[in-house]
Structure formats: C-alpha cells, structure tokens
Design goal:
Elements lengths: L5 E7 L23 H13 L4 E5 L13 H6 L12 H6 L5 E7 L5 H15 L3 E6 L4 H7 L7 H21 L6 E4 L4 E3 L7 E4 L4 E4 L12 E4 L4 H10 L2 E4 L4 H17 L8 E6 L1 E4 L2 H12 L4 H12 L21 H11 L5 H7 L9 E4 H15 L3 E5 L5 H16 L12 H6 L16
Parallel strand pairs: 1-2, 1-14, 2-3, 3-4, 4-9, 9-10, 10-11, 11-14, 12-13
Antiparallel strand pairs: 5-6, 7-8
Helix pairs in contact: 4-6, 6-7, 7-8, 13-14
Length: about 450
C-alpha cells in the first residue's frame, strides 16, 4: 500500500528563521510576525491546502557565538527578535478545524508542573490538535539569561529531560481518572475527589506533591516530537518520541538514523510504526523548469551568507568569524547541537572550511533546496519516502506566503493524482490522524503511570 506523504509548514514566531536574508525579499511578509491576522491568515491557507500542521520552532537566548556578540544576529534578524510560539496557537485554532500545531518548548527552563498545565490548556482549546517538540536547548546565552553559570553538558541535558518526562507523564496520564469529571449539576458535583490523585515525585532534579491542575484533555499527553539525532538524542527519541524531525542530509545518512531510532524503539518495547519521521526540506517550484529556476535565482539574490554563518555558528558552537575562508575548522567537543556537527562533518569532510560551508548555503541555510517543476518535486519527495523510510516533511519557509501557496497550488495536486496525498482531512485529534488513537500507544513508556 502506498503511504501518503505528510506535510508540515516549518516556521518560527520571528522574522528570520532558517533561510537567512529572505525576509528582505520585496514579496516576503514575515516582517508581519507581530500581527495576529498574519498568523490566522497563514493557518487558513495551510488548512485550505490540506497541510497536516504548522511546526513552530523556538529558541531561548540569542545567536551570539559569531564574533562573541549578538550584533550580527540583531542586524540580520537571525531568529531575534523572537516571540512566544504558544500564544499563536489559540488564534490559529479558532479559524481552523483540522490543522495541527507542533510547538517547540525548552524543558531546561520550564518547571514541569506549570508547563504541563499550559499544554493541557492548549490541547483543550484546540480539540486535541497540539504537539510538543521536546528540546533541551543549546545556547549558552539562554543559560546565562536564566541565571545559570553555564549550559549543562549535552548528554546531561538529556538525563534531565528523561526525568522531566517522567514528571509530566504522571501529571498528564496519572492524576485524573477518565471518569473523574461528572459535571452533575443536580448533585452539585463537578469532579469526584476519589478519582483524582496527588502526584508524588522525588527525583534528582524535580520534586512534586500535587494534583494536575487541568482535567483530562482529548489527548492527555500532547503528541511528542523530538529533533535530536545524536547518539544520546536517538535513544531519547526511541524512549519518548512519537514523531522525529531530522535535518535533510544525504538520503543514506537519514536512512541510517531512521533505522537506528526504530531499532532502539523496538528494544525499548515499542513498535517500529509507533514513530513517524519528518525530514526538513526546502522547496522552490514553478509551472515550468524555467520558472522554477528563475524564482530560485530571485530568492538567491536576497539570501544572506553572513547571517547564515551567524546561525550556523550558534547551532554548531563554532565562532566562524575567527577563521579565514580556507582555514581548516576543527570542530572539537561542543555543547551545541551535536547532530548538526556530525552532519556537517559527513557532508564536508572531517576537515572542512568556511568556504565549503558557504558553498552549501545557497538560500541562507545549510539545507539544500529542492528546485524544479511540481512533477520533479513530487518525484523527489516520493523518492525520499521510499529510500529513507520517512513519513513526511517539515517544509521550511523561503518567501512567505508564496512558498506555501506554490506547494498547495502546484505540488499537492500532483501528489493527490498519484495517490500520495490526502484529498480531505480525517476526523479526530492529531494523534488519531497520525496513529489512529487519541491516547499514547500502550507500548509507550508514558502509559505505565496511568490512573
């Protein structure tokens, strides 16, 4: 049976997200990120085009590794200024019925008790269309902003995350019974106290003795996304994630990561199909090859290699301002995104240079774009699905909204003709649309603490 391709728009509540510099394009509307109407119109467009969801990235802190200063990031709007993604969701949900919302939230700086309530609230308000992209952070500037002396080591952050997950599972799954809420007006009984229990947790990082503040939502636990593909990140994904987001590298490299995560999940007592994998992709398309190439060159003229280096410096933990163009760059050990460093080493070799990096940044990021007609793009997406065994794509914005309009108007109809994309939404929550059930799969470790 041919699998349907799933598509999420990949964005951030800021001006410059992944493709640095494209906010300067005269048709780009990302400077309107502060306007609520911008986001509600965005959501309506995506739902009309049958997109599965919008995946909103986020960072806490600023990209200040390049030149040991935030100056270059501020000048180029490299993910700063950036607003809270969570506050967009209720407005977008109010004008849509099926579109889902993947929200990035950094657990390192969020107390689990209050965070669990915010996610339950969003799950209630969206009717079960919320997902959480679990991140632990990688910016030293964020640690300093919160009052920490330094960012914790990469693997230590995942250890903390494992305990954090145990706390929120207890709150979401174990505090309220399914039948706790009676809402009996005649008897004056809203919730049966005997069916609500305190959660107790006494761990290395977190202590808790309280009931969850929210009654059970449609999904209880939001759909769990995770984006780390380092060795430690893969194990975390195998234990917790339902959807994994991997950066678009070579097909063979992505397939190795996917196979490894799914094998680890099976070893943890889960099933291979408990995990959906989304690849980051950038699409530039047109009605003809000539139109697509002209659009690509038009976009390319506005891309900023300088801002791309600022973003790369932060995510790789390397100050590129200290290197000449052809000076070999030794990565060494970094507290930044380990999987990004590993991917860079695979694509450019163990001794890569700033020039090699810049050669990959054709649209202001390290992600090479797919450029071609709608038929060619459809072929490439299907090829990725088969060769890398992935389930869908997080499509990074270039010039908005036209980049998503092009996918909706040109690419999706081709995929539908081929039976590779839905022609209407299925009913139900986000988890039901993905897995056929509103609750965590029985094989997931979070179910062990159910009421």
């Amino acid at each position: 049976m041919t699998r349907e391709i799933r598509l999420n728009a990949f964005d951030m509540n800021c001006v410059g997200h992944i493709q640095q510099g494209l906010w300067t394009h005269p048709r780009d509307q990302s400077h309107r990120y502060r306007e609520l109407h911008y986001w509600t119109d965005y959501a309506r467009r995506l739902e009309a085009g049958l997109f599965d969801g919008i995946f909103l990235a986020d960072i806490v802190g600023v990209n200040d590794v390049y030149g040991a200063s935030p100056a270059a990031a501020l000048k180029g709007a490299v993910q700063v200024p950036v607003n809270d993604p969570m506050l967009l969701v209720p407005a977008m949900a109010a004008v849509t019925e099926h579109l889902s919302f993947g929200i990035t939230a950094n657990l390192t700086y969020e107390q689990p008790y209050l965070f669990a309530r915010r996610m339950s609230t969003l799950d209630h308000l969206t009717g079960g269309r919320i997902g959480w992209n679990i991140v632990t952070g990688y910016l030293e500037s964020a640690a300093r902003a919160i009052g920490m002396q330094a960012l914790a080591a990469h693997d230590d952050r995942y250890d903390l995350a494992d305990e954090y997950m145990q706390v929120v599972y207890k709150l979401w799954e174990g505090s309220w019974a399914d039948d706790a809420v009676r809402a009996d007006k005649a008897a004056g009984l809203y919730a049966d106290p005997s069916r609500v229990r305190k959660i107790r947790h006494d761990g290395k990082q977190y202590q808790l003795d309280a009931i969850h503040l929210s009654e059970p939502s449609a999904q209880r636990t939001p759909v769990l996304y995770q984006a780390g593909s380092s060795t430690r990140g893969r194990q975390f994904a195998a234990d917790h994630a339902e959807c994994v987001f991997v950066n678009g590298q070579k097909v063979e490299s992505v397939r190795d990561i996917v196979d490894d995560i799914r094998a680890r999940a099976v070893s943890a007592g889960r099933r291979k199909d408990d995990i959906k994998v989304f690849v980051g992709a950038t699409i530039v398309t047109g009605r003809t090859q000539k139109e697509a190439l002209e659009k690509f060159e038009d976009y390319r003229a506005h891309a900023s290699s300088q801002s791309a280096l600022v973003h790369a410096a932060a995510s790789l933990g390397i100050d590129f301002s200290a290197f000449d163009l052809d000076e070999p760059i030794e990565t060494g050990k970094t507290s930044a995104i380990t999987s990004n460093v590993e991917a860079m080493s695979r694509s450019a070799g163990p001794r890569w240079t700033k020039r090699k990096l810049l050669e990959q940044m054709v649209l202001g990021s390290r992600q090479p774009p797919m450029v071609g007609t709608a038929e060619e793009i459809a072929d490439r997406l299907a090829d990725w699905m088969e060769k890398a065994d992935v389930d869908g794509f997080n499509l990074s914005r270039t010039v908005v909204p036209e980049c998503f309009d092009d996918v909706i108007d040109l690419v999706i109809p081709i995929l539908q003709e081929r039976g590779r994309f839905k022609t209407q939404y299925r009913p139900g929550t986000l988890r039901e649309k993905l897995f056929g059930t509103p609750r965590l799969a029985e094989s997931h470790g979070g179910t062990r603490v159910r009421f």
